[in-house]
Amino acid sequence: MHPFTYQRATTPAQAVAAVAPAPGAAFVAGGTSQLDLMKEDVLRPSLLVDVTALPLTTISALNGGLRLGAGVSNTAAALHPEVAARYPAVSEALLAGASTQIRNMASLGGNPLQRTRCPYFRDPAQACNKREPGSGCAALQGINKVHALFGASNSCVATHPSDLAVALAALDAQVQVTGPNGPRTIAFPDLHRLPGDTPQQDTTLAHGELITSIDLPAFTGRSHYLKVRERASYAFALVSCAVALEMEGQKIRRARVALGGVAHKPWRVPAAEALLAGKKPSEKLFRAAAEAAFADAKPLEHNAYKIPMGRNLMERALLETSGLQPLQGPAGTAFAASVGGVSGE
Amino acid sequence: MATCYPPCAVPGSAAGRARVARSPHIPGCFAYAGLNLTCSMSDEPRLPLGEPAPDCLLPNGRYLHELRGQPVLLAFAPEEWNPAHAHQSTIFTQLLGAFDAGSSAPEAVVSCWHSLSCHGPVAAQFGVAGQRALLLLDEQGRLRWQTTIRPGHELRTGQVLAALEALRPDAPAPCAAAGEAAAGAALAPAGGGLSRRTFVTATLATAALLLLVGAAEAAGPVSPTETQPPMPAPEAATVPVTLTINGEAHRLEVEPRVVLLDALRENLHLTGTKKGCDHGQCGACTVHLDGHSALSCLTLAVMSEGRKITTIEGLAQGETLHPMQAAFVKHDAFQCGYCTPGQIMAATALVQDKQRRSAAEIREAMSGNLCRCAAYPNIIAAIQEIQTA
Amino acid sequence: MVEATGKPLERVDGRLKVMGAARFSAEWDVPGLAYGAIVSSNVAHGSVRAIDSAAALRAPGVLAVLTHENAPRLQPMPEKVNGSLFRGEGGITETRQPLQNATVEYAGQPLAVVVADTLERARHAASLVRVTYDVRPPELTLEASTRRTLPETFTGNQDEKLQVTVGDPKTALAAAPVKLTRVYESGITHHNPIEQLASIARWETRNGAEFLTLYDTTRGVENLQEVVSSSLSLPKDNVYIICPFIGGAFGSKGWMFAPPLLTAMAARVVKRPVKIEWRRQDMFAVAGQRAATRQTLSLGAAPDGRLTALQHDTQTHSSQSSGYTEPCARVSRMMYAVPNLGFAHQLHHLHLPSPCPMRGPGETVGGWALECAMDELAAELNLDPVELRLRNYAEKNPETGKPWSSKHLRECYARGQELIGWSKRNPKPRSMREGNSLIGYGMATTMYPAARRPAAAKATLFADGRALVQSATHEMGNGAYTIFRQISADGLGLPVEQVRFELGDSALPAAPTSGGSATTATIGPASLAACRNVLAALKQLAIRDAKSPLYGATADDLEARDGRLVRKANPAQAEDYGTILRRAKLPSLEASGEAKPGEERENYSFYSFGAIFVKVRVDELTGTVRVDKLCAVLDVGRLMNPRTAHSQIIGGVAMGLGAALMEETQYDPRSGRAVVRNLADYHVPSMADTPDIQVEWLNIPDPHISELGARGIGEIGCVGTPAAITNAVYHATGRRFRSLPLTPDKIVQG
């Protein structure tokens, strides 16, 4: 790990003031993703500004929705009764991610900012435009089993690994940010970006901008998150799917679907969402929506399996969210919200 | 302390007399911990320094008084088995080769090393019942040096070396005082000035202990001022950090890039917390931070300041295992034992909320702790026993 | 006195392990310790053009940078060590000595060691070393290999020939009324014990000679002592190796010697003790691995299912400098009564890290191929898979013709069927469903060779009546401390609390590398021999001592019981051990003992057997396979300790589950760099993946293996499990999968 200096901030303004002027500076909260990559020499910050002492650790009501402080731990958010009851997709996504220990450490503000699991990004000896712009993309012609189906470029085929982000994208959460130029609000689907020619930039955040909260808008429908992984727990998603479904009588008023593990960002599927709106839930409809969602998929050499897997998972997520099928998830997935395994929260 | 001793000194050169001596065949007369002795004595207050030691029967079948004329080292430890004892004998034998036999014939030196149960009658006789303690008797059978340690504490190399330095026949008095402060060791009023032979005995035995840190006998209290790494202070920017570990404050000077796991293992020598992957992917390094399970490999030491850190060393109450530890033993919830401290820390954090979890819920909640021996079904059984207790 | 052997004693090292007080190799507090960090190769093939250490040497705290240009010279790896072939085709280890030349043979090969005063500084300085290469194209696949060999034997063992023909399998196959030929492929897997490799090396000068102490993660102190001393041109006795605990090995930590050698070299250069703890990513390069295999299985059978021919041909790979060959026919060569039997192994030398044994070397993936092919044949013949196996039940070893020392496999099949509910399943494939899941049942035979090796031990009786037994074997979760204490207690006629067993130290009596499921059968008899010898000496003391009530007896008159020597004819005449010693003014009495296999090995074929039955859920829409229930019924001879044995079997089964469903290391097909090199991407089974595992034993002593009647249990749980799961997935889905692991990408449909 490269040497760095360390500062502890007590207010967001102080944190921003410390990071913004220093090009090599970064915020650190839970550290679970950052320290991992620093030990791999993938990240080499010259200054770490500790934001864990910031007063951003509460969950509060906001305009019929919830404001989740950026410093709230994944565990605390997942087990929060309001979150679990009104936004089950958020709870499910959080609990489907990582392990008890990591959920205890990780923060909501940091979670969506974790970097890709692309193995070439994580190995400094390999070409990676995201890690080292201009060096090339070793994944494009390499082992690209966990890579993107949508929105990739010749510069980068990486996917975004956060489970939480997929649920937040489906729920149209908003991200409150403060930075050198003051505060602003970002719609969650706009937080992450596609790689294009600048894959080094994961998000639309500017250097020195700090997420202060994630706001869940008022929502009275049902939501649900499903994930497929190679191991029954403690593994990143091969594909995942979050559904937010609002009904009007027997019909779907609005459906929002986000897919995980298939793109550089949580992947909303507007064509499928449009197809669902105003229709009565049925297996056939959900199948059609899932097919529409994957119609434009562009598989690489090793990731074509994600197309049937993603279609099936999306269909199942819709079936389970709508109540046409009982909640089961993929075989071997434990669901109960009580599995968080936190103590004393 | 490091000023008293070169930090890189090996035990042999520490005595300043490393040289040739044929390693003799040592008959299997070295003792090891936990021998039952036949003399019976009631609990006595601690023996004062300089006082003649009471007579007693040693594990080799000889009485202490028979050993007059040579220094004797007595080590008291819990009736606790530790395989490191195997190496005690071999290391000891090898160390002889590095020392000047001189006035202390190797056989004599070896035969005067005795490990005893701290729960036995002799421990009571010496006033160290139930404690880990090391006592040095001189040729006249008088107590010249002793050190004890509270349960859960660790021996630090520097402390013992400093204490040894103080015992040197030609040691200056101030250093003796330093040695006392450092190792919690009591010195004979004469300070240094031990006979060379007694000093060699102490050096040999203590050097053996140094190679055996964690062996039950080897112990010295860890004081907040004694937790600096043995290396010279790094030239890069270090920061002072005070870590509260198992209820005790430890002051460190570390670079900001030092993670809690390495601070525990390398700087504080609290090696119960394990490094299995160093990247948050196995759970072996699990500790409690403010009561929650957390990964010490992904936590900077500087960011742990002000938090309540509990490690595996902080679970047992003295010699009494934490119920989860006992349940792990009972259910054979481990094989190689390497992931075990992390499993136990995760499990104890899990059951704190008194929820009764199904096996499926335990499986999910504990999946952050990989066990390559796959003792999983037995770990579940151990946790279920504690949940329902 | 009740015998301790066979009792479910709690682990005697349990207390230390749950307290975090068991001392592992990286944890010794050696004064003056410096830290080493490795610079490894970015490329898989070529040579080092230059290593620029200047920046690293300028970094704070750096003591030295060792490269091939300045590192101490090493002697070549020995040809053979303790009977195992090291060098050459079929040899067990990587023969490349570290930092001796500029050639690069795999990505991740150590090219430099940076030593600094703290861990952080060493690691950081290692990242500052700049290596430039003359890169050559690597050969990374079986197709691309240009160096292919046909090794004659596995590790030089003449009983383990790798190219064998019995009868005429080719003609018999051509003539068989029913035949099938299938190709099975398995990926590279890694042991990934949770304890990473670590060594601490400390040099001293004694008698004017150099003396090296190594604290190393090794399960073979004897071999390591031999390799290190010969490599460094030291007398063997000047190398001392300690390893009282190993944090899991599973085949690793025994046969790869670069890590301790590099540590010893670094410590010699900086003239102070050095520790190198290898990173997890290094474990994918220097710790050994199970190579990938491509196996062609041909079965010929009569219409009733009796096998007429079996041909098992394996393509596998090794590195440039190792001849290690995954011996895939180890099950095929002995499992079924087949008159025409052939097997062959072709080895491809690739630019990949060296393989070495991994739990069930050969058996786990070779047995998988055979037992899957048997399942396919059963389906072809419309026979129950168990019935097909019974019709081909081998009453003797089909390769050698020797009778089995002990075999009760039929009972295992029968009990396994009961436990899983075999008869209640619908045998038709793709016929059972629950919710989103297809349900499948599968089974496979499991086995393991019951090896035994020569070993020595020492027993010491103390005047207080306690005893110490020692042998240079290892504790790696196998329960060695516990079961050898039990065995020794019985051997000495002492309660188990009065006896200690010590191991993991090269100064103790010689024992082979602990592995191959042979430790119990090897060390148990040696310990008993030492116990017998020390008791014989004690008897002589008593017999010759006029003050003893046993004075004048003959040795045969006396027996050892409850810590006393007792006159058989008159048990009232007895004396305890301590009294005899104290009166003789002896603080202790010690004796050595040795034991080795004898002519029984010529007369019998020694194997453990068992059957694995599983129930799986297959979610085809997501590709997820979940093992619901797993039953293992085993015939492993007499159990030494049912508690620790049970754990060992569970562990083996879970590793088989990992091999079946999730474990695979992939290397980039162009660069040869591991793209799976951490525990987030290399999936070892988590608690959520591991079902309830039901283990039952026949517990029938093997009358020939040794006086203990115990065969080994370390690997047999692993061997049959992948096939049982694969066959269950077939039963669930009606689809055959012939490539391990069965990850969701392969299973998913629709």
TrEMBL record, chain A:
UniProt keyword list? FAD, Flavoprotein
What's a single GO MF annotation on this record? FAD binding
The highest taxon in the source lineage is Bacteria
Family annotation (Gene3D superfamilies): 3.30.465.10, CO dehydrogenase flavoprotein, C-terminal domain, Uridine Diphospho-n-acetylenolpyruvylglucosamine Reductase, domain 2
Task: Tell me which residues make up the FAD-binding PCMH-type domain.
Answer: 1-221
Kindly list the residue ranges recorded as spanning the membrane.
Answer: none
Q: Per the record, a Pfam family?
A: FAD_binding_5
Keyword field contains Lyase = no
Flavoprotein as a keyword of this entry, yes or no, is yes
Q: What is this protein called?
A: Xanthine dehydrogenase family protein subunit M
Q: Which organism is it from?
A: Hymenobacter rigui
UniProtKB/TrEMBL annotation, chain C:
Superkingdom per UniProt: Bacteria
What single Pfam family name could you report for this chain, choosing any that match?
MoCoBD_2
Q: Which UniProt keywords apply?
A: Molybdenum, Oxidoreductase
Domain Aldehyde oxidase/xanthine dehydrogenase a/b hammerhead stretches: 19-137
- Record has Membrane as a keyword: no
Any GO MF annotation of the entry = oxidoreductase activity
InterPro entries the UniProt entry points to? Ald_Oxase/Xan_DH_a/b (IPR000674), Ald_Oxase/Xan_DH_a/b_sf (IPR036856), Ald_Oxase/xanthine_DH-like (IPR016208), AldOxase/xan_DH_MoCoBD1 (IPR008274), AldOxase/xan_DH_MoCoBD2 (IPR046867), AldOxase/xan_DH_Mopterin-bd_sf (IPR037165)
Query: SUPFAM superfamilies annotated for this entry?
Result: CO dehydrogenase molybdoprotein N-domain-like, Molybdenum cofactor-binding domain
Protein's name in the database = Xanthine dehydrogenase family protein molybdopterin-binding subunit
